[in-house]
Amino acid sequence: MIRFILAFFALCCLLAFGSMLAEEKGYVLISVSGWTWEMNLFGFFFVLLIAYIGIKACQIMLRLIFNSKRNFSQWREKKAKQKSLLTLQQSLQALFNHDFALAEKLSLKNATKSPIESTHYLVAAEANKNLNQPEKVAQLLLKAESHGDEVQKKLAMVKSLVTEEKQDKAISLCEELHQAHPKDAHVLNLLAQVYQEANSADKLRALLPQLRKHSDLSLNQFNTLVYISFKPAFEQAGQNRDKTQIESLYKQIKKWVKTSPIADNYYLASLVAAAEHESAEKALIKILKADVSEQVIASLYNLPLQQPNKLISYLEKQIKAHPENDNLLTALGICAAKNYDWQLAQQAIEASIKVEKSAKKYALLGAIYEQQNMASQAKSAYQHGLAMALNPSGNSSNDAFLAEIATERT
């Protein structure tokens, strides 16, 4: 129809142009059922133009009228989606603030109108998990399964199996999902979580390369998984007195966390458990050469070294070069105490306290005094440590615990 009108319009233009060339205005005569219209060509052209504009205006108005209902429905649907996403954001904020009841309420409020309905149910399930309501968790996870793609459904099913403590089935299903989607970050993260809850440290350790490459875990989260996966292996190697395995595990863990007191602690503890005291002492000297940190000092407290003479000799040489190094003095005091050299231990800890006081040092000094039957000095040291622990300014988080031990001893 439009093409016909445009063709007729073009024809009229040609006629008008021809009449201008011939210097004849021309006229148009229309006679229908006794009605007669007569006008010149330019007037007829103008009438046609007005008629065309009128027809198009009517067409637009009719289209707006008939489409207004559909446009209004689309507007309402859009507003409902925006509202549902806003309540989802509020529910996540409540979840982070540990207001789990509010998080559940907000996440389910407009869930059916959301473009990501399954996410609402997953947030509600997480809130109920923290509220210790496993039945609701299972129901919400099943709802999440029916609203999402195939991967999301299976992930929700795995979480449901974990909630029901069916670890074997959860691992089997999640491993199948991982084989189908080896680079999916959500699948990898959930598989690592399932391995962790099932205490499958070996499988978690084998998963580390893929987690590093494809997951969205933060560095701290990834390091935590590294420690969890390696700790049982170090303990087992120590019990088996397998020094070769211990050395191999230490090399592997250092690939993931190059500088880590926790990894050093696993290594040293496993060597001591394997009765490799000389190797443990050499390794500790090497670690101290690299970094005399508070974390290394803390590991010395719990490390059952036997006659660490080489370590004591090394520390004494270092102290001569750095007589006011607090960590070196503390390390010497701890090693001397483990070697039952109470006098040297006392001198080292007293010198360390002069450099920097702490409740932990006073607790250790009190124990050293006790071993030498110096009851009054031990009581005084414990009282000083307790006073420092009760004053939180400038004290570490471990001081309060050590002060409680000191209180029990007095």
Automatic annotation (TrEMBL):
Residues 26-129 form the HemY N-terminal domain. It is found in: Cell inner membrane. Keywords: Cell inner membrane, Cell membrane, Membrane, Porphyrin biosynthesis, Transmembrane, Transmembrane helix. Pathway: Porphyrin-containing compound metabolism; protoheme biosynthesis. GO terms for cellular component: plasma membrane. Its main location: membrane. Coiled coil: none annotated. The chain crosses the membrane at residues 41-66. One of its GO terms (biological process) is porphyrin-containing compound biosynthetic process. It is a multi-pass membrane protein. Involved in a late step of protoheme IX synthesis. This is HemY N-terminal domain-containing protein. It comes from Catenovulum maritimum. The lineage of its organism: Bacteria, Pseudomonadati, Pseudomonadota, Gammaproteobacteria, Alteromonadales.
